[in-house]
Amino acid sequence: MACDFAELKAAVTLGHSLVGTSHIDYQTLERRFGICNEIVQGTYCETEKCLKGYFILYPLSASACDAINHREIVNGRGILDEHFETGFNTASGVYVGMVGATSLSAKGLILKELLSLIQQIMEKGCVQYVYTRGATPSGHRVISDYGFQNLGYPSEIQRLYIGRGAVLPNRLSRRLSGFAVH
Asked: Of 21, 53, 114, 140, which is most buried, counting CB atoms within 10 Å of its CB?
């Protein structure tokens, strides 16, 4: 479920608890949320009334994708506001900025939501790549398991081609085949 402005602080607080100061700051996330209010999505505990997990997914312009592919942008900090599209329907690529959760079950739920959204984006056919950079050992494992490729030095970013004719790695393909697109 998409977060609103009020929930951004909870996402940043959770992110800082998981990866420290490498997490995006509140002011930058709020500004980017103003460009595209779909970038932060979360899962909530209704009984505790709190955010249990979230992801940040940026819709990128064609020029941003070119800059990443040519290693002119080498990590998420190099992605600037002008690299954003206003929505996923016009994006040429997407960047997974963060996946975080308070528990393994919440992580499973939020990863399922992220993969479902990526499946929906793939079926629209405009996005060519998913980019990301692992920040934790478990993040690195997921990225590797799902077939992301390193772009090479000096880039810290990995990418996965999802454009037309893409042959997805078996593990990711199996995960995505379980989602019904609405």
From this structure: 53
The percentage of residues in the chain with a pLDDT greater than 90, rounded to a whole number, is 59
Q: Which residues contact 122 (CB under 8 A, 6 or more apart)?
A: 162, 166, 176
pLDDT confidence tier of residue 180, bands split at 50, 70 and 90: very low
Please check whether residue 56 is in contact with residue 14, taking contact to mean a CB–CB distance below 8 angstroms: no
Confidence (pTM): 0.89
Which residue from 156, 162, 115 is spatially nearest to 133, judged by alpha carbons? 156
DSSP string, 147-177: T-EE--TT---EEEE-STT----HHHHHHHH
CA within 13 Å, CB half, 36? 22
Are 159 and 68 within 8 A, CB to CB? yes
Among 109, 98, 172, 104, which residue's Cα sits nearest to residue 136? 98
Distance (Å, whole) CA 11 – CA 17: 10
